[in-house]
Amino acid sequence: MTKLTPLAHVELASYQIVNGFVIVGPCEPQWTTLLNRNAWGGTFYLRPTTLLVCQTYCASVPSCVAVDFNSLDNSCWVHNSADALRPDNMYDQINTNQYRINRVDCSPTTTTTTTPLPAPSPC
Predict the structure, then answer these.
(1) What is the second-level CATH architecture of the domain 29-102?
(2) Domain residues of the chain, as ranges?
């Protein structure tokens, strides 16, 4: 299991800590939800848990592509392979939703501005 290391000092404009994980905004991932759908091949993460903890764990693992969360027993199943996203790997499961992570690129962007040189003055 991968867990983020606690930070001694954080200077960020926006962050929150959920169960020891640091979530930085506004670069938080977005999630696509498939209601009552589940995929084969997930790895059991933790029970009981909450959807937020399940998603936070997935967001902290670079290889995570989706989680299945069962609201009846509060179990979390983590998918680290694109196989979990294939339609032929999905099946109907009442009370279980699949949440697919859409990671946001938080890398800084650099803008280059070019200013034309003034025309040479006549001699």
Answers:
(1) 3-Layer(bba) Sandwich (3.50)
(2) 29-102
The pLDDT confidence band at residue 7, using thresholds 50, 70 and 90, is very low
Amino acid at 52: L
| Separation CA 3–CA 81 (nearest Å) | 19
Per-residue model confidence (pLDDT) at position 104: 78
In which residue are the tokens 């099946």 written?
91
**What six digits make up the tokens of 61?**
């693992």
Which of helix, strand or coil describes residue 117?
coil
pLDDT digits (tens, 9 = 90+) for 53-69: 999 999 999 999 999 99
Q: Between the CA of residue 4 and those of 21, 49, 70, what are the distances in Å?
A: 6, 18, 24
In this structure, what DSSP letter does residue 41 have?
T
The strand pair at 15-18 and 66-70 is best described as unpaired
